[in-house]
Specification:
Blueprint lengths: L5 E3 L5 H11 L3 H9 L5 H8 L15 H13 L3 E5 L4 H16 L3 E5 L12 H9 L4 E5 L6 H9 L3 E5 L13 E3 L15 H13 L16 H10 L6 H16 L3 H9 L10 H18 L3 H8 L3 H33 L10 E6 L6 H12 L3 E7 L2 E7 L6 H5 L8 E5 L2 E6 L1 H12 L11 E3 L1 E2 L7 H8 L13 E3 L4 E7 L5 E6 L4 E4 L16 E11 L2 E12 L7 H16 L5 H11 L4 H13 L3 E4 L2 E4 L12 H8 L2
Parallel strand pairs: 1-12, 2-3, 2-4, 4-5, 5-6, 7-8, 13-14, 17-19
Antiparallel strand pairs: 8-9, 9-11, 10-11, 14-18, 15-16, 16-17, 18-19, 20-21
Helix pairs in contact: 1-2, 5-8, 5-9, 5-13, 6-7, 8-9, 9-10, 9-12, 11-14, 12-14, 13-14, 14-15, 20-21, 21-22
């Protein structure tokens, strides 16, 4: 909770800033940030601020694109039945929509198949392929999946059905024996940009087949009607918004604002988007993507696909209403499972978990990744959340900071039924007996280092420099996301006129600064101690707009808070010391089995005793072994106030 993890970026030379500002007619603030991103000449900065057709690559450079172009043209013109096999997340749904619409333009006989998360799982499913082929499929085109589908692809090819794989996920050492594979990182590819998402790859195929593989020299020669779908999928999949992704997403967001398809317009309206609000990357991340992804999380993602493909405003309105209800259901399920998982995570049983593994019974599988992410935010450690369904634990993991969770958990690969993912997220299935073995091995592992994630700060700003035009300056650098982070500003002990906690559990905080600009922070109960002592607080924030009664007001969104040193409460210190002495004298007592009795003896509630033990663990004073609380010899002396758990404890008293 100090500024030790703030990383202030180097400030560019004044000459560079002046040159960019004058030649590009931008503010010094914009010029500074653009230069910090590495665009230090007017030419490079202009290319960054104004994406153009020159930044797109020739789709024919993708491996096998010539074969795909010829095969799909033949299939379309000869009336062969083409099935586009997608995925249930938003990148997969938009990939499907792009491919279907492009093939329809050719007059192809094309249908879409979105696998069901719970029945088909991710990627090519043999039973699903068998059904599709029985129904007459002659060509199967995968989008946002396929490179791990050896069995299903081999079956289809053996039946005379050509499988064209378009994908962007990690490549296995051996690729399926498909008719063709389009992948930006294919070992035989010379494609200059490797970070397209599934919908980005699908768009490059669409571009090739709709331009007959010819180079394009003007935006009007592209299938621009598909760019809104590209923006949705790429932002949702959090690929790097650099290179051609930045161009495609930038154009797609403008298309949503200027000529939205019926499904997009209906979804925005149901999400509460006001006509005067700009459509930016944040609009997709926080309003559109969660709603569209909720459909595949809880059931059949075909509803999301139908919404994006419909040309009927009335049908779009009806489907958007259904999706809004599904999203509300998703939110309720997340809160229920998160509450149960959090209770387990904070229990003495899991207090020493360096990589937290929590498991429940019949928790909804579609939202376990969301719950894992929220636990990571709460506990600042990697988290895996599992649910036992039909005798097997299945779930998702999310990492903390730069820790490679996929590589780490890959050490125990022999224990899993299924396992996949990447550095920051994974999915796995494991039997109950193997889960016991995994827990034992994780408990015995050597200590791992989880450094606090650095908070990047572009510059320190006085609050007095903030104005409505500041937000406009920042928006020139949209779209923000992976590879193009939103600028963050540091504010050193600004004058806070009012501080208040918000939310059902007082988990949010709102600060009103001297010039009536508000700063808000969400889901950080440890920050609510500001309410009692608002002075001496510094923070890092990004800029946003708050719309109220038709008026847009500049708002700061807290990214990190540095609280002033809080003197230890002598009474608390004495009381914690008494509990520590009790633990010291009773290391042979199983706290896990006797928590209620011990709490009563110490005249505490079990909840408060559990919190105190958590504080001791966090400070490195004790550890837990099979329910027994053990003193760590020669532990470094630390103040209670350095514990985040203690600060949360104070904030809620």
């Amino acid at each position: 909770m100090s500024q030790n993890n703030w990383r202030l970026l180097p400030q560019p030379a004044e000459k560079t800033v002046r040159q960019l500002a004058s030649q590009l007619n931008i503010s010094s603030l914009t010029a500074t940030i653009v230069a910090q991103k590495g665009y230090t000449t007017p030419e490079a900065a202009f290319g960054y601020l104004q994406p153009s057709i020159d930044q797109l690559h020739d789709p024919m450079q993708l491996h096998d694109m010539d074969k795909v172009l010829e095969r799909l043209m033949t299939a379309a013109f000869e009336g062969e039945k083409i099935v586009v096999y997608g995925d249930y997340d938003l990148d997969g749904v938009t990939s499907t929509a792009v491919m279907v619409e492009a093939l329809q333009v050719l007059g192809a006989d094309v249908t879409a198949y979105i696998p069901n998360r719970f029945q088909d799982g991710y990627g090519p499913n043999l039973a699903a392929y068998q059904r599709l082929i029985e129904d007459g499929a002659q060509v199967i085109v995968t989008v946002d999946n396929g490179v791990s589908g050896h069995e299903a692809v081999a079956y289809a090819m053996s039946q005379g059905v050509d499988v064209i794989i378009t994908d962007h996920h990690e490549l296995a050492p051996t690729l399926p024996a498909a008719y063709a594979i389009i992948h930006p990182r294919h070992p035989e590819s010379t494609y200059p940009f490797q970070d397209l998402s599934g919908v980005g790859v699908a768009f490059k195929v669409a571009q090739a087949i709709l331009t007959d593989g010819a180079p394009v020299e003007d935006k009007s020669e592209l299938p621009t009607e598909l760019l809104d779908l590209v923006a949705l999928g790429e932002i949702a999949d959090m690929v790097s918004l650099t290179d051609e992704n930045r161009t495609l997403v930038s154009w797609g967001l403008k298309q949503m604002a200027e000529t939205p398809r019926p499904g997009v317009a209906a979804l925005l309206k149901s999400a509460g988007q006001l006509p005067e609000q700009p459509i930016i990357s944040e609009t997709v991340s926080f309003k559109m993507a969660p709603r569209l992804n909720a459909v595949g999380r809880l059931g059949d993602a075909k509803l999301a696909l139908d919404l994006l493909l419909t040309q009927s405003p009335d049908a779009a309105t009806d489907m958007a209403t259904q999706i809004e209800a599904i999203n509300a259901q998703r939110q309720a399920i997340v809160e229920e499972v998160f509450g149960a998982a959090k209770q387990l995570a904070l229990s003495a049983t899991h207090a020493n978990d360096q990589v937290l593994v929590v498991a429940g019974e019949n928790w909804h599988q579609g939202i376990l990744g969301i719950v894992a992410s929220r636990l990571v935010e709460l506990l600042h450690k990697p988290v895996i959340v599992l649910s036992q369904i039909d005798g097997t634990y299945k779930g998702s993991g999310r990492t903390f900071g730069d820790f490679d969770l996929y590589a780490f958990m890959g050490q125990y690969r022999e224990l899993y039924t299924t396992f996949g993912g990447h550095a920051s997220a994974l999915g796995l299935a494991i039997s109950p007996d193997k889960l016991t073995v995994l827990r034992t091995q994780l408990a015995e592992m050597a200590p791992i280092v989880l450094p606090e994630k650095a908070v990047t700060v572009n510059m320190m700003l006085p609050v007095a420099q903030l104005a409505p035009t500041t937000y406009d300056d920042i928006q020139l650098m949209e779209p923000f996301g992976t590879g193009n982070p939103q600028p963050a500003f540091g504010f050193e002990t600004p004058q806070i006129e009012k501080a208040m906690a918000m939310g059902s559990t007082q988990q949010h905080v709102k600060l009103t600064l001297t010039n009536q600009i508000e700063a808000v922070g969400f889901n950080h109960p440890d920050w609510t101690s500001i309410v009692a002592q608002p002075q001496g607080v510094s923070f890092v924030a990004t800029l946003g707009l708050n719309y109220f009664r038709g008026q847009a007001r500049l708002q700061l969104l807290l990214a990190d808070v540095s609280l002033p040193d809080v003197p230890e409460n002598d009474a608390h210190k004495q009381f914690f010391a008494q509990v520590y002495k009790f633990i010291y004298a009773h290391q042979d007592l199983n706290f896990g089995q006797n928590l209620d009795k011990i709490a009563k003896q110490l005249q505490l509630t079990p909840k408060d005793l559990n919190i105190m033990i958590q504080v001791f663990i966090e400070l490195g004073f004790v550890k837990i072994e099979a329910g027994y609380v053990k003193i760590i010899p020669n532990a470094t002396q630390k103040s209670l106030t350095t514990s985040v758990t203690y600060q949360k404890f104070l904030a809620n008293r």
